[in-house]
Amino acid sequence: GENVEQHPSTLSVQEGDSAVIKCTYSDSASNYFPWYKQELGKRPQLIIDIRSNVGEKKDQRIAVTLNKTAKHFSLHITETQPEDSAVYFCAAPMNYGGSQGNLIFGKGTKLSVKP
Amino acid sequence: KAGVTQTPRYLIKTRGQQVTLSCSPISGHRSVSWYQQTPGQGLQFLFEYFSETQRNKGNFPGRFSGRQFSNSRSEMNVSTLELGDSALYLCASSSLPAGEGYEQYFGPGTRLTVT
User: Fold this and answer.
1) Are B8 and B59 in contact (CB under 8 A)?
2) Which of A49, A51, A102 lies at the smallest CB-CB distance from B45?
3) A residues 64-103 near B, CB within 8 Å?
């Protein structure tokens, strides 16, 4: 089944710097890769996702890149701000006999942005 | 549209008891997934229901069960509670199965404490 590894588990950056979080997945049939942000005491919320037919997607200060050959995808946050401090989760779908099943989440990266 | 709601928000139970948690998805959403969140373990998939049928099940013991009603509301039950079941239980709804690339919207969670 699908296995999703996420690194690093904690990341501390200065305000204005960039942050990069990387995930690897095991199932080559996976074709949808979302990223969720969970602020302290709040529910996870989708911030960006990418499908396997594109290699990069951007939304203002955040971007996601996908390398299907290497089976890894990354979240890039530029010009970080204190409000970016949160736990970020990547995910990939479990494959069930050719159809995409439930999402498997990485263990999360706690990002701290220091002012 | 109203968001995903979960009841109760907090629960304290004793070892050996059983508990039932409820999740009301966004109107029109037919998929409900349940996750257990504990520090350091991220979001661990419990099960997904779609149109009243369990679509997938995670690697949890049979003490964890669930169901979905015709109005898409879902319940999960944990019998014979153990201390290790203490966690935040999150449900998420989507219009179609989440692994197919449809955004999951999370509820606020039920914080279960087993003493």
Assistant:
1) no
2) A102
3) 89, 93-94, 96, 99-103
Which H or E run contains A58?
A: strand A56-59
Q: What is the pLDDT of residues A9-67, one digit of tens each?
A: 999 999 999 999 999 999 888 888 999 999 999 999 999 999 888 899 999 999 999 99
Q: Do A93 and B48 touch (CB under 8 A)?
A: no
Residue A43 to residue B107, Cβ atoms within 8 A: yes
Closest CB from B45, B92, B104 relative to A104: B45
Q: Do A44 and B100 touch (CB under 8 A)?
A: no
Predicted pLDDT at B96: 85
Give the mean model confidence (pLDDT) for residues B78-105.
91
Count of CB atoms situated within 10 Å of the CB of A100: 21
Question: What number of other Cβ atoms are within 10 A of residue A25's Cβ?
Answer: 22
Nearest chain A residue to B109, by CA: A43
Residue B27 makes CB contacts below 8 A (sequence gap 6+) with: B1, B2
pLDDT of residue B101: 74
CA atoms of A66 and A62, how far apart (whole Å): 14
